[in-house]
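Quick one: co-fold with pyridoxal-5'-phosphate.
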Amino acid sequence: MARELKDLDWKHIGFQYRPCDWRYVAQYKEGAWQEGGLSADPNVTINECAGILHYCQECFEGLKAYETVKGDIVCFRPDLNAERMMDSAEYLCMPKFPKEQFLSALRETVQANLAYVPPYGSGASLYVRPYMFASGPVIGVKPSDEYTFRIIVMPVGPYYTGGAKPVSVMVSDYDRAAPHGTGHIKAGLNYAMSMHAHEIAAKGGYADNMFPDPMERKYVEEAGGANFYFISGDGKTFVTPKSDSILPSVTRRSLEYVAEHMLGLKVEERRVALSELPEFSECGMCGTAAVISPVGVVNDHGKDIVFGKGLAEAGPVTKKLLDTLTGIQLGTVEAPEGWIFKIA
Ligand code: PLP
Ligand code: COI
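Sure, here it is.
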């Protein structure tokens, strides 16, 4: 039987909040996670002194559900999101949300909102946003005793408006994360830190920032919403910045595997100096929301570094990476073992 679909303009859906019918909610109280369940209420009511409101004790995740060519509804490597959220929680002194409960809550939430999963071929997907915050009151700086975990979903198109078309980014004068801070976890506070820099980039017409390393400002870290990768001048090596203060992107880790095992490229995870950017033939941003967004131009303090055909067209390796990654997610390319989590 054909799946019921909401009447939405799937091809022009944008990347924006759109409340769906159901969300998952679970509470942590008296030292344990309670059994969670679905709720129709999009609003959250919390105490005026809740830890999230004062000391920003919060972390989140981002993943997507897709309709495949066969009509299945699947998620891409959600076990890695569950694990990363546990790492984020641990660093922020929050209770870990158990992996099995994360995966069953994900299944329950997507299944309840199946009519919002964009149809195969539309280019859109269902964005899934699990998040957890301190909902109990605290006034001294300390971890809260109570937490709320929720999963919301919404159909989305590409995050960077270029989609598969190249965009430009600028090297930022600001830091997104401190050298021994929270850059390696997915904490909302990192995004608050990058907001000012993001506004400057957006006003200049840039899709995002290229943040340099906060210690020496010589090496590439990441973008406000994605990791970077580069392709060597001879097109044979996939290079991605190594740093303790960037988010370990699920997409980037997957692309490293795809590059090495499916496209026959050499893979290097190492420090990438800003001064060596002109030597690369391609540059891209990668992430769940970003998918792969080719970068045609990096503006480094007024000087444009242009990759391949610049903003006109993505490079050949980027095209292959994008086709293979989206093929795996949509079921047209065979997925490596364990990458696809079937929901329906
Ligand atoms: N880096 C930052 C700062 C992000 O916000 C994201 C998005 O989640 C990523 C990288 C990409 O990570 P992932 O591929 O796990 O979505
Ligand atoms: C994601 O890709 O899931 C993110 O959280 C990035 C964010 C900038 C939307």
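If it helps, Residues 124 and 157 are 4 Å apart (CA to CA).
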